[in-house]
């Protein structure tokens, strides 16, 4: 996991921060892995777009302990940025089988998005609109309340690591 001082300062100052090549991910994250995780674990999955077909975006809740690396990422970010632990903090997986564009929204927690498969654009709105491309191993930090939109350019899988309480 690679973060430099400038990136750490940016996140500490609650700025959207894009980190290319944050993690070297050796595992192949694909839809067979998602299927196996669902089969082996009693995890809730919801559709986020309600299109009613393969264009839906799916969310797997509380995946923090499903794979060792998810727990490592979760603990690393928790400790590095000194979040007060909250029972709602978790790693969640979002995945889609086709390209799609999500609704513009903001989250009620600080989120770190880690690309696991595919290519995704995170369009972040503020003083100016900026598009950030997330590929496997890339990460983006989006502070709570920052309006953004997700544009899946390919089938994709991302890990969303969310922290609900402010930092210590």
How many strand elements? 11
Mind describing the biggest β-sheet?
Answer: 7 strands, antiparallel
Query: Which architecture would the CATH scheme give at its second level?
Result: Sandwich
Please state the overall shape, judged from the principal axes of the Cα atoms: globular
Which residue ranges are poorly predicted, with pLDDT under 50 across at least 5 consecutive positions?
none
State the separation between the terminal residues, measured CA to CA. Answer: 22 Å
Going by helix content, strand content and strand pairing, the class is: alpha+beta
According to CATH, what is the topology?
Jelly Rolls
Number of helices: 3
Number of domains: 1
Trace the largest sheet across and list its strands. 1-9-6-11-4-3-2
| Radius of gyration from CA coordinates | 15 Å
User: What percentage of the residues does DSSP assign to strands (E)?
Assistant: 25-35%
| Helix percentage | 10-25%
